[in-house]
Design brief:
Number of domains: 1
Structural class: mainly alpha
Number of helices: 4
Order of helices and strands: HHHH
Shape: globular
Distance between the termini: 21 Å
Number of strands: 0
């Protein structure tokens, strides 16, 4: 299986996990918030699967791209800690699984 396909699969799982964590919360427009969270987390997995930086550990690559992709949502919502921390953890896991932990 290609890294891009792995990234898409891990992105779908990460998106579903994030939506599941948000279901009990209340938002002014809950549907939009859940869709945005899913797309953001899916994009993290997909981008990590598409990118290779030779010599970089996969988990580091994952954290960098997860933080870059999560930062706009964190700035808009002003919920920096949960968005950035969960994004970084998910990015590290996806990057490590796809590109290795070394």
């Amino acid at each position: 299986m290609s890294d891009m396909m792995k990234g898409a699969i891990y992105g779908l799982a990460f998106g579903a996990f994030s939506v599941a964590m948000m279901l009990p919360m209340s938002f002014p427009d809950k549907r939009a918030a859940l869709i945005a969270a899913f797309i953001n987390r899916f994009a993290i997995g997909f981008v990590i699967g598409c990118v290779t930086l030779p010599g970089w550990p996969g988990w580091t690559l994952g954290i960098i791209f997860a933080l870059l992709l999560s930062l706009p949502a964190a700035i808009i919502s002003k919920a920096y800690a949960p968005i950035l921390i969960i994004g970084a953890i998910g990015g590290a896991m996806i990057g490590g699984l796809i590109h290795g932990w070394h």
